[in-house]
């Protein structure tokens, strides 16, 4: 980037403009984590991204040969009023829904694929996914974003790489204080809470990322 240093003498309230020239470092490493909403309304979108990894890699390799791709998914907190909590919905929250009667249990966040340069692994992981169902329109994406950011070792973020997080959803996320509607009062501690299966373990215990203390 040039210039590297600029000296200005301005009065309070004055404005000025200047030009910067920025050039991308050649073959700079890039880590891209794809975080996808797997609630029922995203079923068509899931079908459309079966080969997304190949397309992403083709485009990114026009910019760098040092590219890695990861994948994670989210739905929402599996508590009322965000999800269907009656016992009969615990194994299949789509029971009784005529348009799509079978889906997987609801979950907060799942880290499915650490960052890798194997695009075929990304495509394979996406093909294995099935949608779930929550009760309200907003989704629990902010919990997932926080875990993707702070679980650095599990995700595989490289210190010297450009970090990109692609967040895919078709609705607004739940925000601060929403968790209290479900009786959650413990503020989020901002730490990584993924178990050995890479599933978010405190989705139903802590209020949403960014919630203030009660």
UniProtKB/TrEMBL annotation:
Locations listed in the record: Cell membrane
GO terms for cellular component: cell surface; focal adhesion; integrin complex
Gene Ontology MF annotations: integrin binding
The keyword Magnesium is annotated on this UniProt entry: yes
Record keywords: Cell adhesion, Cell membrane, Disulfide bond, EGF-like domain, Glycoprotein, Integrin, Magnesium, Membrane, Repeat, Transmembrane, Transmembrane helix
Lineage top rank: taxon: Eukaryota
Domain Integrin beta subunit VWA: 1-214
A single BP term in Gene Ontology: stress fiber assembly
Main location (coarse class): membrane
Membrane topology qualifier: Single-pass type I membrane protein
A UniProt-annotated Pfam family: Integrin_beta
Entry's family note: Belongs to the integrin beta chain family.
PANTHER family referenced in this protein's UniProt entry, alphabetically: INTEGRIN BETA SUBUNIT, INTEGRIN BETA-5
Protein name, entry field: Integrin beta
Organism: Gulo gulo (Wolverine)
């Amino acid at each position: 980037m040039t210039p590297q240093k600029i000296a200005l003498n301005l009065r309070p309230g004055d404005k000025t403009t200047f030009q910067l020239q920025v050039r991308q470092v050649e073959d700079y490493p890039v880590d891209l984590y794809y975080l996808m909403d797997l609630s029922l309304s995203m079923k068509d979108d899931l079908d459309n991204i079966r080969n997304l990894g190949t397309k992403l890699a083709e485009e990114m390799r026009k910019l760098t040969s040092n590219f890695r791709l990861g994948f994670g998914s989210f739905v929402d907190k599996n508590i009322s009023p965000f999800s269907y909590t009656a016992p009969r919905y615990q194994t299949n929250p789509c029971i009784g829904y005529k348009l799509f009667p079978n889906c997987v249990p609801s979950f907060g966040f799942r880290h499915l694929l650490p960052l890798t340069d194997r695009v075929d692994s990304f495509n394979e992981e996406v093909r294995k996914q099935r949608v779930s169902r929550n009760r309200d329109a907003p989704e629990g994406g902010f919990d997932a974003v926080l875990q993707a950011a702070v679980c650095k070792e599990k995700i595989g973020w490289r210190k010297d790489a450009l970090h990109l997080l692609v967040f895919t959803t078709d609705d607004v996320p739940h925000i601060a204080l929403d968790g209290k509607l479900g009786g959650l009062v413990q503020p989020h501690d901002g730490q990584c809470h993924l178990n050995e299966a890479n599933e978010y373990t405190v989705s139903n215990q802590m209020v949403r990322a960014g919630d203030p203390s009660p």
